[in-house]
Design goal:
The chain is an alpha+beta fold. It is built from 6 helices and 14 strands. It has helices at residues 4-11, 39-45, 70-82, 177-184, 233-236, 248-261; strands at 12-15, 19-24, 51-52, 61-67, 86-93, 101-105, 108-110, 116-118, 126-128, 133-135, 151-159, 164-170, 208-217, 223-228. The strands form 2 sheets. Strands 1, 2, 3, 4, 5, 6, 9, 10, 11, 12, 13 and 14 form a 12-stranded mixed beta sheet that branches. The chain has a two-stranded antiparallel sheet with strand order 7-8. A hairpin with a 4-residue loop joins β9 (126-128) and β10. The radius of gyration is 18 Å and the shape is globular.
C-alpha cells in the first residue's frame, strides 16, 4: 500500500468541510520523512492540501487528524495545546504484571543519536506498583539538557502468560512518549524496533494503535466529535491465537470501559 488514493479510500473515519480523520496504516509517517514519503506529501502529490494537526509515530497505526482549512488547523492546534483533545491508544506489551491502572510520570529528553529517553538515570525511577505509579524525584532530573514533563495513564484490558493489552491515555503528547514510558518501566511494546529486544522479523509490526480521538468542532456549533479506529488484523496478530472467548471486538468494548475508568470519555 503506497498510493494516496488507496490509503484514503480505505481509511476515512470522518470527513467534513473542515477536517479529515484518517486511519493511518503502520509504516507511514504523517509528515517530515527525509528520505521517503509521508501522508501529507502523498496527499499533496495527488492534489489534496492537508495540514497535520498532530502526529503519531511512523510505526503506529490509527486515527490521525488532518485539517482541510487553515482556520480549522489553528483552532484544533489550540485544543491540542490546551490538552482538551481526548486521545486513546491500544497497546500490546511484551510482558505481564502491570496493575489494573497506572500512571507513568517521567520527564523526557533527547539523548544520544537524537533518541528520546527518560530525563533521569534509570536507577532513579521509583516504582510504586501497589499504587500503580512510576516517577522520579525532581533532584534526579537532568539539568544539563532540556527536559519535558510527560504523563501517561493506562488501564489493563487483558493479559496472558506473555502479553498485555493496555488502553493508554497520553496526557501530554511528547515524541515517542508511550513507547519510551512503557519500555523504561520494563514493559516494551510488542514489535517496537527501538525497545523490544525480542522483536520478531519478517513483517511484524509495532503494536501501537491510535484508537480514538475526541475534539470540539467550532465549525459545527461546538459539537464534541468522537472518532474511533478499530485495530486491524496486523495489530492483533501476535496474540490472536491466544485470545480468550472475547474476540477483538469484545476486547475493544472492555477497552472503552477501561478508558472511562481513567476519567476520560471513551472515543
Amino acid at each position: 500500500m503506497n498510493g494516496w488514493t488507496e490509503i484514503r479510500d480505505g481509511g476515512v473515519l470522518l470527513e467534513d468541510e473542515a477536517v479529515l480523520v484518517l486511519d493511518k496504516p503502520a509504516g507511514f509517517p504523517v509528515v517530515g520523512e527525509r528520505h521517503g514519503t509521508d501522508l501529507v506529501r502523498l496527499a499533496r502529490e495527488a492534489g489534496e492540501w492537508l495540514l497535520p494537526v498532530h502526529r503519531i509515530d511512523k510505526v503506529a497505526s490509527g486515527a490521525v487528524l488532518l485539517a482541510k482549512q487553515p482556520w480549522a488547523h489553528a483552532d484544533l492546534a489550540r485544543q491540542f495545546s490546551r490538552r482538551s483533545v481526548d486521545k486513546a491508544y491500544l497497546v500490546v506489551t511484551r510482558s505481564r504484571g502491570l496493575p489494573e491502572q497506572g500512571t507513568i510520570d517521567l520527564p523526557l529528553c533527547v539523548g544520544r543519536k537524537n533518541r528520546v529517553r527518560v530525563a533521569a538515570p534509570r536507577a532513579s525511577i521509583v516504582a510504586d506498583e501497589a499504587g500503580g505509579r512510576w516517577s522520579v524525584a525532581s533532584s534526579e532530573v537532568f539539568t544539563d539538557t532540556r527536559t519535558y514533563p510527560s504523563l501517561t495513564t493506562f488501564a489493563r484490558v487483558w493479559e496472558d502468560e506473555g502479553n498485555t493489552l493496555l488502553a493508554v491515555r497520553p496526557v501530554t503528547g511528547r515524541r515517542h512518549q508511550i513507547r519510551v514510558h512503557l519500555a523504561w518501566i520494563g514493559h516494551p511494546i510488542e514489535g517496537d524496533p527501538l525497545f523490544d529486544k525480542q522483536r520478531p522479523s519478517q513483517g511484524a509490526r509495532t503494536c501501537l494503535h491510535s484508537w480514538g480521538l475526541a475534539f470540539d468542532a467550532a465549525w459545527s456549533g461546538g459539537t464534541r466529535i468522537r472518532v474511533e479506529a478499530a485495530p486491524g488484523a496486523d495489530f492483533w496478530a501476535p496474540v490472536r491465537e491466544r485470545l480468550p472467548d472475547g474476540t477483538p471486538a469484545t476486547l475493544t468494548r472492555r477497552a472503552r470501559r477501561a478508558v472511562a475508568a481513567l476519567g476520560q470519555a471513551a472515543p
